[in-house]
Amino acid sequence: MKELSIKALIISITVGLTGILSTYYSSVKVSNKLTSQYYVELEQSAKQVSIRFQDAVDQSVNDLQALQAFYSANKQRSSSIEFNRYMDILNIESRHHIQALSWVPLIKHDMRNDFEIQIKKQYPNFEITERDNDGKLIVSQIKDYYTPVTYIEPYQKNKAAQGFDLNSSDTRRASLNHAKATGKMTATAKIRLVQEKEDSYGFLIIAPVHKEVTSGENDSLLIKELIGYVTGVFRINNLMENARQQADHEEFVLSLVDVDEKTGGRLYGTQHDTVAFNFNITIPDRQWNLEISLNESLLKDVQSPPIVYWILLSGSLISLLLAISVYGLQIAVSRAKHITVLSDQLKNQNIQLEQIVEERTQSLADTNEQLNSHVDELERQGIELSHLMEQSQKEKVKAQERATALARSNKDLDDFAYVASHDLKAPLRGIDQLASWIAEDIQEGTFEEVPENLQLMRSRVQRLEFLLNDLLAYSRANKQEGTITTVHCNALIEETFTLLCPPPQFKLTIDDNLPEFSTVSPPFEQVIRNLMSNAIKHHGQEDGHLKVRYEEQESFFKFYFEDDGVGIDENYYDDIFQMFKTLKPRDETEGSGMGLALLKKIIEYYGGEINVSSTVNVGSIFYFTWPKEITDTTLNNMKG
Which of 502, 559, 511, 504 has its CA nearest to residue 534? Predict the structure, then answer.
């Protein structure tokens, strides 16, 4: 038995060592093959990154060439309107890799004054500028000629560069002269951009623009005269964005180098000791090199693929298990009889175990069936409970809305009661007093004051009629049927202003871009009409000026009505929105004091707000918010 164990041990050790050596040899071959395959795949991915970057450069050059052709085709220098129209057609805002496109004319010194006067008509703050020794922008000194950035888009984020004389910078001047001498598009070396507040580096692509003129001696002989340049401004980080996103996805590290011996250098990224791939990037008059390296984790995976370790580990484990199996097999032969006995015993135990499992399985199935029936019942009850809770919540919301409406209705009743006891009685008492005076004059036979008293009586009756009409309008506010229609705000305000028949000297200024949207038009038109009528009626002078503008919020439009009238003391801001409140005596005003109260009621009914900001003897600004969207469903809910 001892000799059998030693022999089995020797055989098992031999089998294990043989398996481990075979596994190691296989893992080395697999590692070399995978590394070679990985590099082929990575090279294709890296080439796609370089192609994407080259495409961004080519697209930028094409856009600049199109702008160059646009200026070359015009016999006269294009105005800012034509430039901006072309930028809209180009959709410059969508060109994220372009910081800006600009027109840079060539201005001689004797033309500078007339040129600045002409441009200031469009841009009042325009001046030809340059940088001083500290890097600050100052007014350009006297030179033989200038190349100022005149028109630039997008304007808002690049307006700091407007007026900058490109000829005042050594790097830019060298590229300008090269473009002028060769007549071809050229790119600058890395520069600090004027329009950035902090240090931000980029480069320019400059394209000369010529026009054909006669030589003077022979009208048939045409020569090309340089009139300026079109320039493309690029932030290197923005230009690299698309390529960087793909590189990050592939776990690449990018670096961009300008290979020019004199003005070149690293444009993006840092220098790496091991560069996996190099690609030449073509740009006008320069040559760039895109270096692509592998990050540490990717480099580690490529040089030592994880699967190799798994092959080595699993192969060694299998060899060890095989050795143990061989050893166990040898030992098992001598114990076959004992195993046979144990096998019979195990078989009997398995039969008993199967019977027990079958009985318990049937019991568990019966229990599960009962449990499923209980679960179904609980789900049904849960659905019913959810429906009841939803219905209860809806009824609760309706009850709250009705309570709010009831409170508002009670307040209106209180206001009407106050009117009946005060404002309605006041005109009636005046009428009664005037009637008594007229009767006394008739009895005494003196008729001199009768016509005046009759006129006063008619004015009291007219005021009472105005008051009753305004009360009726206030009571009916928000109860009229309405449908959703499209409102063109600019046209509505202009038509309303004409219908109000203001004095000839009264002016109206409207923002050109007031919104067009769908809403319930009658109440909205009533708000517009009353605000404009108040601005004209209470202005105090014949030559007034009303300005209308708006701003867009998340769910509302906010409209501003600004006049230059007598203004309102801030102590009366709250009073003017209350019923029957006027800032002048009743005999000096035609109104009943209901106008602004009616507007406040309409606007708040649709979820908006109205407020005023005013300065005495300067003017007032009434502003209100109106919902962007009012649907038929919303109207039905409000009515309900």
Answer: 502
